[in-house]
Amino acid sequence: xxxxxxxxxxxxxxxxxxxxxxxxxxxxxxxxxxxxxxxxxxxxxxxxxxxxxxxxxxxxxxxxxxxxxxxxxxxxxxxxxxxxxxxxxxxxxxxxxxxxxxxxxxxxxxxxxxxxxxxxxxx
Length: 123
Known about the structure:
Elements: H1 6-25, E1 31-32, H2 33-42, H3 50-62, E2 66-73, E3 76-84, H4 86-110
Antiparallel strand pairs: 1-3, 2-3
Helix pairs in contact: 2-3
């Protein structure tokens, strides 16, 4: 019998959505890397490491979904701030309805009390 490891399951789910979660965090204002890590950690399930987030940010930059700007920090060295580009906003806007449909479909299959009975299904 195969038993899934909860940590591995969360890790796989996180890999699929982390890019869009980062884009979402940049929707309202620029943020620096550590700030993004802290906000992801605050969610619990989206907590990740620098070794995951910084390569992701570099890829988002190469794909022109984010831009960067160095800003002086009041408490240490300058920080690289990441901002959403128009292409990043478009990617996020296109993802939102896909995610909603995907999450609803998974919820429907997993939550037994939400499953439609055969009599309620429509062709």
